[in-house]
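Two entries, shown back to back:
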Amino acid sequence: MKSVLIIGMGRMGRHLAKKMQELGNEVMVVDKDASIIEGMSETYTDSHIGDCTNASVIRALGVSNFDVCFVTIGEDFQSSLVVTSLLKQYGAKQVVAKAKQAIQMDLLKKIGADEVVCPDWDIAEKLAVRYNARNIFDFVPLTAEYSIYEIPVLKSWVGKTIQEQDIRRKYSINIIAVKHNAELRPIPGADYVFDADDHIIVIGKSSDVFKIASKT
Protein backbone atom coordinates (compact mmCIF):
# COMPACT_ATOMS: atom_id res chain seq x y z
CA MET A 1 0.00 0.00 0.00
CA LYS A 2 1.22 3.48 -0.91
CA SER A 3 0.27 6.95 0.22
CA VAL A 4 -0.78 9.01 -2.77
CA LEU A 5 -1.49 12.72 -3.24
CA ILE A 6 -3.45 13.79 -6.32
CA ILE A 7 -3.73 17.49 -7.11
CA GLY A 8 -6.36 18.49 -9.67
CA MET A 9 -9.69 16.71 -9.85
CA GLY A 10 -10.40 16.91 -13.54
CA ARG A 11 -11.28 13.81 -15.54
CA MET A 12 -7.83 12.24 -15.27
CA GLY A 13 -7.48 13.09 -11.58
CA ARG A 14 -10.83 11.53 -10.73
CA HIS A 15 -10.11 8.32 -12.65
CA LEU A 16 -6.65 8.07 -11.13
CA ALA A 17 -7.94 8.61 -7.60
CA LYS A 18 -10.64 5.98 -8.06
CA LYS A 19 -8.24 3.37 -9.39
CA MET A 20 -5.54 4.04 -6.81
CA GLN A 21 -8.08 3.67 -4.03
CA GLU A 22 -9.48 0.46 -5.54
CA LEU A 23 -5.92 -0.92 -5.49
CA GLY A 24 -5.80 -0.40 -1.74
CA ASN A 25 -3.75 2.78 -1.53
CA GLU A 26 -4.25 5.71 0.82
CA VAL A 27 -5.38 8.58 -1.38
CA MET A 28 -5.58 12.30 -0.63
CA VAL A 29 -7.33 14.45 -3.25
CA VAL A 30 -6.95 18.22 -3.54
CA ASP A 31 -8.62 20.83 -5.74
CA LYS A 32 -9.21 24.56 -5.42
CA ASP A 33 -12.87 24.17 -6.46
CA ALA A 34 -14.90 23.69 -3.27
CA SER A 35 -17.89 22.16 -5.09
CA ILE A 36 -15.72 19.42 -6.59
CA ILE A 37 -14.17 18.44 -3.27
CA GLU A 38 -17.51 18.56 -1.45
CA GLY A 39 -18.90 16.14 -4.01
CA MET A 40 -15.98 13.74 -3.45
CA SER A 41 -15.70 14.00 0.32
CA GLU A 42 -17.82 10.92 1.02
CA THR A 43 -15.65 8.76 -1.22
CA TYR A 44 -12.33 10.26 -0.12
CA THR A 45 -12.23 11.07 3.57
CA ASP A 46 -8.84 12.69 3.04
CA SER A 47 -9.94 15.46 0.68
CA HIS A 48 -8.92 19.10 0.81
CA ILE A 49 -9.91 22.40 -0.78
CA GLY A 50 -6.85 24.46 -1.62
CA ASP A 51 -4.94 26.33 -4.27
CA CYS A 52 -1.69 24.38 -4.52
CA THR A 53 0.07 27.21 -6.33
CA ASN A 54 0.24 28.72 -2.83
CA ALA A 55 3.37 27.54 -1.01
CA SER A 56 1.59 27.55 2.35
CA VAL A 57 -0.96 25.03 1.04
CA ILE A 58 1.76 22.68 -0.21
CA ARG A 59 3.64 22.99 3.05
CA ALA A 60 0.49 22.22 5.08
CA LEU A 61 -0.18 19.05 3.05
CA GLY A 62 3.10 17.50 4.25
CA VAL A 63 4.02 16.36 0.77
CA SER A 64 7.24 14.66 1.88
CA ASN A 65 5.11 12.01 3.61
CA PHE A 66 3.59 10.72 0.36
CA ASP A 67 5.14 7.98 -1.73
CA VAL A 68 4.04 9.69 -4.93
CA CYS A 69 2.41 13.02 -5.81
CA PHE A 70 0.41 13.42 -9.02
CA VAL A 71 -0.20 16.79 -10.66
CA THR A 72 -3.26 16.32 -12.89
CA ILE A 73 -4.34 19.93 -13.32
CA GLY A 74 -6.31 20.26 -16.55
CA GLU A 75 -5.97 23.34 -18.75
CA ASP A 76 -3.88 25.69 -16.59
CA PHE A 77 -0.34 24.68 -17.48
CA GLN A 78 1.23 27.57 -15.58
CA SER A 79 -0.36 26.22 -12.40
CA SER A 80 1.04 22.77 -13.19
CA LEU A 81 4.53 24.24 -13.41
CA VAL A 82 4.20 26.12 -10.13
CA VAL A 83 2.71 23.15 -8.26
CA THR A 84 5.34 20.73 -9.58
CA SER A 85 8.14 23.10 -8.56
CA LEU A 86 6.67 23.61 -5.08
CA LEU A 87 6.22 19.87 -4.53
CA LYS A 88 9.92 19.26 -5.18
CA GLN A 89 10.88 22.29 -3.12
CA TYR A 90 9.00 20.92 -0.11
CA GLY A 91 10.46 17.44 -0.35
CA ALA A 92 8.08 15.35 -2.46
CA LYS A 93 9.71 11.97 -3.09
CA GLN A 94 8.25 11.38 -6.53
CA VAL A 95 6.27 13.78 -8.69
CA VAL A 96 4.31 12.64 -11.74
CA ALA A 97 2.87 15.48 -13.83
CA LYS A 98 0.47 15.65 -16.74
CA ALA A 99 1.31 17.41 -20.00
CA LYS A 100 -0.42 17.97 -23.33
CA GLN A 101 2.48 19.02 -25.56
CA ALA A 102 6.15 18.19 -26.02
CA ILE A 103 7.28 21.60 -24.81
CA GLN A 104 5.22 21.14 -21.65
CA MET A 105 6.87 17.79 -21.01
CA ASP A 106 10.32 19.36 -21.35
CA LEU A 107 9.50 22.23 -19.01
CA LEU A 108 8.00 19.97 -16.34
CA LYS A 109 11.08 17.75 -16.40
CA LYS A 110 13.39 20.76 -16.14
CA ILE A 111 11.70 22.02 -12.99
CA GLY A 112 11.89 18.65 -11.28
CA ALA A 113 9.08 16.31 -12.35
CA ASP A 114 10.29 12.72 -11.97
CA GLU A 115 7.92 11.54 -14.69
CA VAL A 116 5.68 13.30 -17.18
CA VAL A 117 2.70 11.59 -18.79
CA CYS A 118 0.80 12.71 -21.86
CA PRO A 119 -2.53 10.82 -21.98
CA ASP A 120 -3.54 12.11 -25.41
CA TRP A 121 -0.23 10.93 -26.91
CA ASP A 122 -0.49 7.56 -25.21
CA ILE A 123 -4.00 6.97 -26.56
CA ALA A 124 -3.00 8.11 -30.05
CA GLU A 125 0.03 5.80 -30.05
CA LYS A 126 -2.05 2.81 -28.99
CA LEU A 127 -4.66 3.49 -31.65
CA ALA A 128 -2.00 3.92 -34.32
CA VAL A 129 -0.33 0.62 -33.46
CA ARG A 130 -3.62 -1.29 -33.18
CA TYR A 131 -4.94 -0.12 -36.52
CA ASN A 132 -1.63 -0.04 -38.37
CA ALA A 133 -1.29 -3.83 -38.23
CA ARG A 134 -3.86 -6.57 -38.38
CA ASN A 135 -4.83 -8.41 -35.22
CA ILE A 136 -3.01 -6.30 -32.63
CA PHE A 137 -5.46 -6.36 -29.72
CA ASP A 138 -3.40 -4.43 -27.21
CA PHE A 139 0.14 -3.28 -26.57
CA VAL A 140 2.31 -1.72 -23.87
CA PRO A 141 5.39 0.21 -25.04
CA LEU A 142 8.60 -0.53 -23.14
CA THR A 143 11.37 1.12 -25.18
CA ALA A 144 11.73 2.61 -28.64
CA GLU A 145 12.21 -0.94 -30.01
CA TYR A 146 10.44 -3.31 -27.65
CA SER A 147 6.83 -3.58 -26.54
CA ILE A 148 4.40 -6.10 -25.10
CA TYR A 149 1.64 -7.16 -27.50
CA GLU A 150 -1.52 -9.24 -27.46
CA ILE A 151 -1.99 -11.15 -30.72
CA PRO A 152 -3.84 -14.31 -31.86
CA VAL A 153 -1.96 -17.52 -32.58
CA LEU A 154 -1.21 -18.60 -36.12
CA LYS A 155 -3.41 -21.34 -37.53
CA SER A 156 -0.32 -23.47 -38.13
CA TRP A 157 0.39 -23.43 -34.38
CA VAL A 158 -2.97 -24.90 -33.33
CA GLY A 159 -2.62 -28.33 -31.75
CA LYS A 160 1.14 -27.97 -31.36
CA THR A 161 3.26 -27.05 -28.36
CA ILE A 162 5.41 -23.96 -27.81
CA GLN A 163 8.47 -26.22 -27.95
CA GLU A 164 7.43 -27.84 -31.22
CA GLN A 165 7.00 -24.45 -32.84
CA ASP A 166 10.32 -23.21 -31.40
CA ILE A 167 8.72 -19.77 -31.03
CA ARG A 168 11.69 -17.85 -29.64
CA ARG A 169 14.17 -18.97 -32.30
CA LYS A 170 11.86 -18.84 -35.31
CA TYR A 171 9.99 -15.62 -34.53
CA SER A 172 12.32 -13.67 -32.17
CA ILE A 173 9.59 -13.16 -29.56
CA ASN A 174 9.01 -14.40 -26.03
CA ILE A 175 5.58 -15.58 -24.88
CA ILE A 176 4.92 -14.28 -21.38
CA ALA A 177 1.27 -15.37 -21.10
CA VAL A 178 -1.59 -17.04 -22.95
CA LYS A 179 -5.14 -15.73 -22.81
CA HIS A 180 -7.74 -18.45 -23.32
CA ASN A 181 -11.45 -17.56 -23.09
CA ALA A 182 -10.62 -14.48 -20.97
CA GLU A 183 -8.52 -16.61 -18.59
CA LEU A 184 -4.89 -15.51 -18.38
CA ARG A 185 -2.23 -18.18 -18.03
CA PRO A 186 1.10 -16.54 -17.20
CA ILE A 187 4.47 -18.07 -18.17
CA PRO A 188 3.15 -21.10 -20.11
CA GLY A 189 5.44 -24.13 -20.16
CA ALA A 190 7.16 -25.43 -23.27
CA ASP A 191 4.57 -28.25 -23.39
CA TYR A 192 1.61 -25.85 -23.67
CA VAL A 193 -0.60 -26.83 -26.64
CA PHE A 194 -2.05 -23.94 -28.64
CA ASP A 195 -5.80 -23.66 -29.07
CA ALA A 196 -7.46 -21.93 -32.02
CA ASP A 197 -9.06 -19.32 -29.73
CA ASP A 198 -5.85 -18.47 -27.88
CA HIS A 199 -4.35 -15.03 -27.73
CA ILE A 200 -0.69 -14.79 -26.75
CA ILE A 201 0.93 -11.98 -24.78
CA VAL A 202 4.42 -11.53 -26.20
CA ILE A 203 7.41 -9.26 -25.78
CA GLY A 204 9.45 -8.38 -28.84
CA LYS A 205 10.38 -5.85 -31.49
CA SER A 206 7.49 -4.23 -33.33
CA SER A 207 8.77 -5.39 -36.71
CA ASP A 208 8.89 -9.03 -35.57
CA VAL A 209 5.45 -8.96 -33.96
CA PHE A 210 3.86 -7.24 -36.98
CA LYS A 211 5.19 -10.01 -39.24
CA ILE A 212 3.39 -12.61 -37.14
CA ALA A 213 0.20 -10.55 -36.82
CA SER A 214 0.01 -10.06 -40.59
CA LYS A 215 -0.15 -13.86 -41.04
CA THR A 216 -3.01 -14.48 -38.60
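entry 2 starts here
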Amino acid sequence: MSDVSKEYGAALYLLAREEDAEEQLLEETRTAAEVLRENPAYLSLLSSPDLTKEERSNAVAAAFAGAHRYLVNFLSMMVERGYAREIPACLDEYLRLYREDHGIAVAKVVSARCLSDGEKDKLIAALERRYGVTVEAEYKTDPSLLGGMKVEISGTLLDGSARRRLDGVRADLSSLTL
Protein backbone atom coordinates (compact mmCIF):
# COMPACT_ATOMS: atom_id res chain seq x y z
CA MET A 1 0.00 0.00 0.00
CA SER A 2 1.38 3.37 -0.98
CA ASP A 3 1.75 6.41 1.25
CA VAL A 4 -0.94 8.12 -0.82
CA SER A 5 -3.50 5.41 -0.10
CA LYS A 6 -2.66 5.33 3.60
CA GLU A 7 -2.83 9.10 3.93
CA TYR A 8 -6.01 9.64 1.95
CA GLY A 9 -7.76 6.54 3.31
CA ALA A 10 -6.96 7.69 6.85
CA ALA A 11 -8.22 11.20 6.08
CA LEU A 12 -11.54 9.81 4.85
CA TYR A 13 -11.86 7.61 7.94
CA LEU A 14 -11.04 10.44 10.36
CA LEU A 15 -13.57 12.74 8.67
CA ALA A 16 -16.26 10.06 8.82
CA ARG A 17 -15.49 9.36 12.48
CA GLU A 18 -15.54 13.06 13.36
CA GLU A 19 -18.88 13.51 11.63
CA ASP A 20 -20.35 10.29 13.06
CA ALA A 21 -20.75 8.83 9.57
CA GLU A 22 -18.27 5.96 9.84
CA GLU A 23 -20.95 3.24 9.93
CA GLN A 24 -22.71 4.50 6.81
CA LEU A 25 -19.44 5.01 4.97
CA LEU A 26 -18.25 1.55 6.04
CA GLU A 27 -20.81 -0.22 3.87
CA GLU A 28 -20.43 2.26 1.05
CA THR A 29 -16.64 1.96 0.98
CA ARG A 30 -16.96 -1.84 0.87
CA THR A 31 -19.38 -1.60 -2.02
CA ALA A 32 -17.31 1.00 -3.89
CA ALA A 33 -14.10 -1.03 -3.48
CA GLU A 34 -15.84 -4.15 -4.76
CA VAL A 35 -17.34 -2.32 -7.75
CA LEU A 36 -14.01 -0.75 -8.69
CA ARG A 37 -12.13 -4.05 -8.39
CA GLU A 38 -14.71 -5.80 -10.55
CA ASN A 39 -14.51 -3.04 -13.17
CA PRO A 40 -10.83 -2.19 -13.78
CA ALA A 41 -11.80 -0.55 -17.09
CA TYR A 42 -13.72 2.07 -15.08
CA LEU A 43 -10.58 2.93 -13.10
CA SER A 44 -8.70 3.20 -16.39
CA LEU A 45 -11.37 5.59 -17.66
CA LEU A 46 -11.06 7.69 -14.50
CA SER A 47 -7.29 7.84 -15.06
CA SER A 48 -7.53 8.64 -18.77
CA PRO A 49 -5.86 11.84 -19.93
CA ASP A 50 -8.39 11.86 -22.80
CA LEU A 51 -11.03 13.14 -20.37
CA THR A 52 -10.90 16.46 -18.60
CA LYS A 53 -10.80 16.52 -14.81
CA GLU A 54 -14.37 17.80 -14.88
CA GLU A 55 -15.54 14.91 -17.08
CA ARG A 56 -13.86 12.37 -14.80
CA SER A 57 -15.34 14.03 -11.74
CA ASN A 58 -18.80 14.03 -13.34
CA ALA A 59 -18.39 10.31 -14.16
CA VAL A 60 -17.73 9.60 -10.47
CA ALA A 61 -20.66 11.74 -9.34
CA ALA A 62 -22.98 9.91 -11.75
CA ALA A 63 -21.74 6.42 -10.86
CA PHE A 64 -21.94 6.99 -7.10
CA ALA A 65 -24.95 9.35 -7.04
CA GLY A 66 -26.68 7.60 -4.14
CA ALA A 67 -23.59 7.40 -1.94
CA HIS A 68 -22.80 9.60 1.05
CA ARG A 69 -21.54 13.02 -0.05
CA TYR A 70 -18.22 12.49 1.79
CA LEU A 71 -17.53 9.41 -0.30
CA VAL A 72 -18.54 11.07 -3.57
CA ASN A 73 -16.42 14.14 -2.76
CA PHE A 74 -13.51 11.89 -1.80
CA LEU A 75 -13.71 9.91 -5.04
CA SER A 76 -13.99 13.10 -7.10
CA MET A 77 -11.00 14.63 -5.34
CA MET A 78 -8.90 11.49 -5.92
CA VAL A 79 -9.77 11.54 -9.62
CA GLU A 80 -9.07 15.26 -9.95
CA ARG A 81 -5.66 14.83 -8.32
CA GLY A 82 -4.74 11.97 -10.62
CA TYR A 83 -4.97 9.25 -7.97
CA ALA A 84 -7.85 7.22 -9.41
CA ARG A 85 -5.83 3.99 -9.38
CA GLU A 86 -5.18 4.49 -5.65
CA ILE A 87 -8.88 4.56 -4.76
CA PRO A 88 -9.32 0.82 -3.99
CA ALA A 89 -6.29 0.88 -1.68
CA CYS A 90 -7.60 4.04 0.04
CA LEU A 91 -10.92 2.32 0.65
CA ASP A 92 -9.06 -0.72 2.02
CA GLU A 93 -7.23 1.59 4.43
CA TYR A 94 -10.59 3.00 5.56
CA LEU A 95 -11.80 -0.55 6.26
CA ARG A 96 -8.57 -1.45 8.06
CA LEU A 97 -8.82 1.58 10.35
CA TYR A 98 -12.49 0.91 11.05
CA ARG A 99 -11.72 -2.68 12.00
CA GLU A 100 -8.78 -1.62 14.15
CA ASP A 101 -10.91 0.93 16.04
CA HIS A 102 -13.73 -1.58 16.58
CA GLY A 103 -11.68 -4.65 17.56
CA ILE A 104 -12.48 -6.60 14.40
CA ALA A 105 -10.06 -9.17 13.00
CA VAL A 106 -10.22 -10.61 9.51
CA ALA A 107 -9.86 -14.36 9.16
CA LYS A 108 -8.84 -15.65 5.73
CA VAL A 109 -10.29 -19.13 5.53
CA VAL A 110 -9.26 -21.59 2.83
CA SER A 111 -11.11 -24.90 2.88
CA ALA A 112 -11.12 -27.97 0.67
CA ARG A 113 -14.84 -27.48 0.01
CA CYS A 114 -17.45 -24.80 0.53
CA LEU A 115 -18.46 -24.53 4.16
CA SER A 116 -22.12 -24.58 5.16
CA ASP A 117 -23.59 -21.60 7.00
CA GLY A 118 -23.60 -23.65 10.21
CA GLU A 119 -19.92 -24.54 9.81
CA LYS A 120 -19.07 -20.90 9.16
CA ASP A 121 -20.98 -19.82 12.27
CA LYS A 122 -19.18 -22.40 14.42
CA LEU A 123 -15.80 -21.39 13.02
CA ILE A 124 -16.43 -17.69 13.64
CA ALA A 125 -17.62 -18.38 17.20
CA ALA A 126 -14.53 -20.50 17.94
CA LEU A 127 -12.18 -17.84 16.55
CA GLU A 128 -13.92 -15.08 18.51
CA ARG A 129 -13.57 -17.09 21.73
CA ARG A 130 -9.92 -17.86 21.05
CA TYR A 131 -8.84 -14.34 20.03
CA GLY A 132 -11.28 -12.24 22.05
CA VAL A 133 -12.26 -10.07 19.08
CA THR A 134 -15.10 -9.84 16.61
CA VAL A 135 -14.19 -11.83 13.51
CA GLU A 136 -15.07 -11.18 9.87
CA ALA A 137 -14.16 -14.01 7.52
CA GLU A 138 -13.20 -14.18 3.89
CA TYR A 139 -13.76 -17.64 2.40
CA LYS A 140 -12.05 -19.43 -0.48
CA THR A 141 -11.94 -23.05 -1.54
CA ASP A 142 -8.87 -25.02 -2.59
CA PRO A 143 -9.48 -28.71 -3.38
CA SER A 144 -5.73 -29.38 -3.19
CA LEU A 145 -6.05 -29.25 0.61
CA LEU A 146 -7.86 -32.61 0.29
CA GLY A 147 -9.81 -31.94 3.50
CA GLY A 148 -9.88 -29.60 6.47
CA MET A 149 -8.93 -25.93 6.23
CA LYS A 150 -6.34 -23.22 6.76
CA VAL A 151 -7.15 -20.06 8.68
CA GLU A 152 -4.97 -16.96 8.78
CA ILE A 153 -5.89 -14.50 11.52
CA SER A 154 -3.95 -11.85 13.41
CA GLY A 155 -0.68 -12.92 11.81
CA THR A 156 -1.15 -16.57 12.78
CA LEU A 157 -1.68 -19.47 10.38
CA LEU A 158 -3.79 -22.31 11.70
CA ASP A 159 -3.34 -25.24 9.33
CA GLY A 160 -5.73 -28.12 9.87
CA SER A 161 -5.63 -29.34 6.30
CA ALA A 162 -5.36 -32.98 5.33
CA ARG A 163 -2.56 -31.96 2.94
CA ARG A 164 -0.43 -30.71 5.87
CA ARG A 165 -1.08 -33.89 7.84
CA LEU A 166 -0.16 -36.09 4.87
CA ASP A 167 2.99 -34.07 4.27
CA GLY A 168 3.90 -34.58 7.95
CA VAL A 169 3.40 -38.34 7.69
CA ARG A 170 5.45 -38.39 4.50
CA ALA A 171 8.28 -36.50 6.23
CA ASP A 172 8.15 -38.88 9.22
CA LEU A 173 8.27 -41.92 6.97
CA SER A 174 11.13 -40.58 4.88
CA SER A 175 13.21 -39.94 7.99
CA LEU A 176 12.98 -43.59 9.06
CA THR A 177 16.07 -45.62 8.35
CA LEU A 178 15.62 -49.22 7.41
